[in-house]
Write a structure and sequence with these properties.
Distance between the termini: 33 Å
Largest sheet: 6 strands, mixed
Helix content: 25-40%
Shape: globular
Number of helices: 6
Number of domains: 1
Structural class: alpha+beta
Strand content: 15-25%
Number of strands: 9
Length: 195
């Protein structure tokens, strides 16, 4: 994961992070840990049905079947090739706009895992340069990296003094929580609880 590739090769403690944070920055901005370059933005607690503009690939639901969150991209990050044999959207180069949609029963650990997943997506996208990548493939690659390294990362953030109990990544309550997704003619109809 990203912290392993940084110049410091360790998780920064809360004091080091506070010294690097930007005051009045837009919530959800994801930056490169070494250069400070903005790589993307992430919104936690989005409504799945509100972010969909086109049918989603069914592989997306399989990829997140065991998770208490689902990640998809804002329309600004996707390219849908017209007249293409494949309907699968690809990621545009540059900034990613990511949405983390929470499922019923989510916890602060799920929010942290979703955030780490989003950060990994942004870093992998940045490393690809101008090459377009299928959206689901990008999610799958980031998922593998997160799955392999999350336990070590979580252990390191706790050792560095980060709060174990509260999730301060999301302020307030999510716009919606996914309770069920039915597949029909409208791919990905969502049953949701709103708050």
């Amino acid at each position: 994961m990203v912290y392993r590739k940084s110049q410091h090769s360790r998780v920064p403690d809360p004091a080091m992070t506070a010294a690097r944070e930007r005051i009045f920055e837009r919530s959800g901005t994801i930056r490169d840990i070494d250069t400070g370059i903005s790589l993307g933005r992430c919104n936690i607690g989005s409504s799945f049905s509100d972010i969909l503009r086109h049918p989603i690939p069914l592989e997306l639901l399989d990829l997140f079947r065991q998770e208490r969150y689902l990640i998809w991209f804002d329309q600004r990050s996707l390219h849908q090739a017209q007249g293409s044999q494949s309907e699968e959207p690809t990621l545009l180069s540059g900034h990613l706009y990511i949405h983390i949609c929470l499922k019923e029963g989510y916890s602060s650990k799920d929010i942290l895992k979703g955030w780490v997943h989003a950060v990994e997506l942004c870093h992998q996208r940045y490393a690809q340069g101008t090459r377009r990548l299928p959206a689901v493939e990008a999610l799958r690659l980031a998922s593998l990296t997160v799955r392999e390294n999350l336990e070590d990362f979580v252990g390191q953030i706790y050792s560095a003094g980060w709060n174990r109990d509260d999730s301060v990544l999301m302020t307030g309550t999510p716009a919606a929580i996914i309770t069920n997704i039915r597949l029909g003619t409208q791919v990905g109809e969502e049953e949701k609880k709103t708050r």
